[in-house]
Design brief:
Tetracycline Repressor, domain 2; Arc Repressor Mutant, subunit A; 9 helices; 2 strands; mainly alpha
């Protein structure tokens, strides 16, 4: 009899999050079920339910992984001493690069956002994810100002919501047109407009 290899829960959860993303990238966010994830990951359905007590818990982990990725993209643009305009431009360029690298990932999260609006069971999760994304953007903007020794002319939460909304909207338009030049021009404009809202203390 083959001895079953024990997989730590944290490792199994990471594997299942990756499987969930593969399912959604391939078939769309609406196709996500625990059964589909189990099949993709080649594990028993019970293994999915052991790692996550519900599909919502699995989706929360999917969001958390993407939020961590977004934080890495933005954080990689920071460099104390650089002109804040260049830091912001670098951040949006990094965002554009990640978008182009795997457009299906952006499509998945655009679809999940719509599901959160339409599905009452997912409304709270969708709201929670937006708050977490906004918080990461706010942390980035706070650090940009601190590194430059400057201050924003409006509450950072307002600026973070505006920047987050701009990125999502531009990404959605790009998914439809694949107009790289227009995306880059618009993102540069967003960065430049935002930089003007900093002032010396």
């Amino acid at each position: 009899m083959t001895k079953r290899v024990h997989v730590p829960v944290a490792t199994r959860r990471a594997q299942l999050v990756e499987a969930a993303m593969r399912v959604m990238r391939r078939d769309g966010a609406w196709a996500l079920t625990t059964r589909a994830v189990a099949k993709d990951a080649e594990v028993p359905l019970g293994a999915v339910h052991y790692a996550f007590d519900s599909k919502t818990s699995l989706m929360r982990a999917v969001y958390a992984a993407d939020i961590d990725s977004a934080a890495t993209v933005l954080g990689g643009a920071l460099n104390p001493g650089d002109d804040p305009r260049e830091v912001l431009r670098r951040a949006v360029r990094r965002y554009a690069a990640s978008l182009r690298l795997d457009p299906q990932v952006e499509l998945v999260f655009q679809e999940l956002g719509l599901m959160g609006v339409r599905d009452e069971e997912l409304t709270a999760l969708s709201r929670e994810a937006v708050v977490d994304y906004r918080a990461e953007v706010a942390r980035f903007l706070t650090q940009v100002a601190a590194d430059a020794g400057q201050v924003w002319d409006a509450p950072v939460e307002v600026l973070a919501e505006s920047l987050f909304g701009s990125l999502i909207g531009l990404a959605q338009n790009w998914l439809g047109t694949r107009d790289d030049a227009l995306l880059d021009d618009c993102l540069e404009d967003v960065a430049d407009q935002l930089a003007r809202r900093l002032s010396v203390q």
